[in-house]
Amino acid sequence: MTRRKNTLLRLTTIIVLALMMLFSVVSPAVAAPPSWEDQGADGGYLEGTESDPADAYITKLLRMASTLDVPEPPLTMDFRFTVTPIGMDGAGMPTDGTVMPIISAITISFDGTENDYISGSSKAVPKESTAGIFYGVNWPKAGVYQYKVKEIPNTYLAHRGDDYTEIISYSGAEYDIEVWVEEGTSTFYAKYIAARLVAGKIDSYWDGESGGYKVNPDTEADVLTLITTDEYSQMVFSNTYTKFDGEPEVPPPTDPPLIEGDTVLKIQKLVSGLDADRDWYFDFVVTVTYTSVIIVPPGHISKVYLVEGNVVRDFKIASGSGAGDGNILSSMSSYVHTDADGQQYYEFIPGTEFTISLKHGQYLAFTTAPVGAEYLVKEVNGILDSGSNAIYVASSVQKNSDGVFTDASDVGDPLTVSGVIGSNAIEPDSVVFTNSISGTTPTGITLDNLPYYALIGVAVLALATYVVLKVRKRARYTAER
Fold first, then answer.
1. Are the CB atoms for 47 and 189 separated by under 8 Å?
2. Topology of 28-244 in CATH?
3. Where in 293-442 does DSSP place strands (E)?
4. Residues 6+ apart with CB under 8 A from 72
5. CATH 2.60.120.260 fits 260-437, yes or no
6. Which of 138, 213, 335, 366 is the one with CA 20 to 30 A from 196?
7. Where are the domains of the chain?
8. pTM over 0.90
């Protein structure tokens, strides 16, 4: 009886072991989805099939000023990303001889044909990797494979020269990806994929958070709040692209003296009318702002020159506020410096307003402001009694050489004009304030019209002398006969 019981026990044990071995062969090694906290309706992971395995995609996002464009062919902007194996099944690199698949670097190239999305003075240009990160990978066995995705810095050779200079910041984001591989009927395949951001910051256009936040690496994820018509992977690497016309720190060589070709923004004052005071200085309050999509390099100097007759002039110190006899107050002289060519420039602080006065024919030449910088210009005493004993009315304000004249009633008092550097097809961007003298035809002799009256007097006197001499000569001739 005991022997029969032992035999039955052995038989049961053998059957159990056989069943366990059978199920271990036919059951997939990975039967549960990733354990990370679920996000949204998709459960925080992508699910695939043997015929259509799960995969992940990368979105490269270029952020720039709205007036800036991606370089066009023959130039291309190439950005590359590494996909590095970091372990299996949460236990580091495998030690059982399993070799994790090596994933080639991913390249995303921009050629100027991409869709862009503009919001205010900023522009977003996204582009997604054309193929999935794990497309065509042969997985050696079932298990959970972990990879880290990072951007390789300095893959685009930014241009720097006298004509223009490019500056690019690279993303510091890092993403961890888990690939849950199962055995199918004929091969191992990616059943689940999940990704999360582990370093850096999600781009400001999307409301994700850093520090382990799950992201959707699918091509149909709603990645950017700015983009409503298209969908991109949420595995975003964001770069900022900035362009300066000429050198960013100093203007191009000014020997011969600085000319209009070096200028990215020109603010000019003109007056018209016979009685216009061409020596009176009109006050301009200027603000030039470098927006969040502009990279300011170390050592950058924000310069503005005073130009008259296409020659750089020194800033004249005014005797007092509103005196109309100089360009700047003495309290502002600390902002005036001299460049390597011996020419004076005013160093303004981006985002902070400053006041410089201009007389007829003078203009401010901004030479180092980047493309996309916003400017605001106000002429504060242009249509009032300027103190020069001449009453002016706003005649016109012309924005850019191909712009239209704007009536003063449209721009207000003080006259106010705003814009973005780089918006003008014909450089430089320019704003010209022209004020005409008010009133009617002069009724008396002034210093301005005195020479004309003198010429008329001389002409009349000459004519009278000629007539008198002619009459006397005729009278003498008649008497002699």
1. no
2. Immunoglobulin-like (2.60.40)
3. 303-308, 311-313, 336-338, 344-347, 354-358, 362-366, 374-379, 392-399, 405-406, 415-420, 429-437
4. 111, 112
5. no
6. 138
7. 28-244, 260-437, 447-481
8. no
